[in-house]
Amino acid sequence: HAKGNGRTQYQFFKEEYQLAAIRRLALEADLRQAIAENQFLLHFQPQIDLRSGRPVGVEALIRWRHPVRGLVPPIEFIPAAEETGLILPIGDWVLAAACRQLAAWRERGVDGIRMSVNLTASQFLDPALPARIQGLLEQYRLPAALLTLEVTESMSMASPERAIASMRELTACGLSLAMDDFGTGYSSLAYLKLLPLRELKIDRSFVKDIETDRNDADICDVTVLLAHKLGLEVVAEGVETAAQLKYLLSIGCEKVQGYFFSRPLPADEAERFIVESPAIPRLGTIDLWAGDAPV
Question: Is the pTM of this model over 0.85?
Answer without folding.
Answer: yes
